[in-house]
Amino acid sequence: MKTQLSVVIITYNEADRLPATLAALDGLADEIIIVDSGSTDETKAIATAHPLVRWYERPFDGYGPQKNYANSLAQGEYILSLDADEVVSPELRAAILSVKGRWGAPVYAVNRLPFYAGRPVRWGGWYPDWKVRLFRRGLARWDERPLHERLSWERGLPVERLSGHLWHYTYRSVADHWARTYRYATLLSQAYAEGWQPIPSWGGVMARALSRALKSYLFKGGWRLGWRGAAIASLGAIVLPLSLILYYEHQERGRSVQKIPT
To answer: pTM score, two decimals?
Structure first.
């Protein structure tokens, strides 16, 4: 029987979140491709215990290259690309099943509903969050920028939106948010060094940071979330000046920005 749907996931120390991601795929995926970049926790044991998982290991050299490699291993007619902190909701599962095997579009978009420290976030500029994640194999490719990799496909192709949510468990806690903010700032500084992003001015980056914080907290309703909204606004803004600080620190020391695993 022809493989209809491959689910592709890249992982790195996701033992606490991967079980929910995999459980939601039962009866939906025909195969699950996992490419790991050196996990030291129980990620491999959890993944390989699932009967549909095909496990691969590869040194991390960027989100885009890692995802493209994982996609190259898939055998399904269509690929559903997930992160290990994302879970297909029952409503989205039903929507995908309704088109599976009767594909009516080359590309499908899903609406991510983020969770922060265990609670859904519908304010602060994080929602709605439509992302193309389901596409015909070979049709789309991730670019290789260090941060915020983008999926590209032939211009003009129709994109169909699916009902339901892709639950996105973004940050476990404020400490997790801060650690990942530093990681993202490091990756953004790497993007400056490699020419993926223009190097902003200090005035420009400070103005953007202030604008982002005010937009998230005041104009996008982040204040409705209490301390979560304050954390989202402030840490979301600080990544910009922090990335520029890290870029110039590494330039002054005469060394490139350290590449870090996902």
So the answer is: 0.88
